[in-house]
Every structure is written in structure tokens, then in C-alpha cells.
Amino acid sequence: xxxxxxxxxxxxxxxxxxxxxxxxxxxxxxxxxxxxxxxxxxxxxxxxxxxxxxxxxxxxxxxxxxxxxxxxxxxxxxxxxxxxxxxxxxxxxxxxxxx
Length: 99
Known about the structure:
This protein has four helices and no strands. By secondary structure, it is mainly alpha-helical. The termini are far apart.
């Protein structure tokens, strides 16, 4: 019988995966303008955004937002799974005790 993975471990794995995806997207977004400034016209023609370095950089930044958003979503889901949950009856009993 297969053992279930605790939600906390799954949360940490999703959190780290999302963080890695966001960092990769940010690093590529920082690196790409420098590459585009020194790239040949033929290399820029094969790149997204066409032969203009400025347009290619803007297109890469816009496309880079998608993996960053997915990484942020994974990070948020991992954060929610990692936090311990309180049961509804505990919240009710805590509210009665605080009166």
C-alpha cells in the first residue's frame, strides 16, 4: 500500500518549485537585454520580436511574465499547503473562550 505524502512536504516542494520558476524568469528578463544589445542581426531575426533589439526585449519580457505568474501561483499554493490548518470547531471554541 502506498503511503500518502503529508501536505506540508508537498507544500514545501510546490513552494520551492514556484520560487525557482520565478527566479529563473526574473534572471532571464535581466539577462536578455544585454544579450539583445550585443546579438547579431541574424540572431535577432530568429528571436521573438524580430530584428529590433528593443522590440525583441519587450516581447521576451511579456512572454516571461507567463512563467513568472505560474511560479507565483505555485508559490501561493505551496504556502497555503504548508501552513497548519485550524479546524472549524477549534475556531468556534476559541471565539467562545475569548468572550
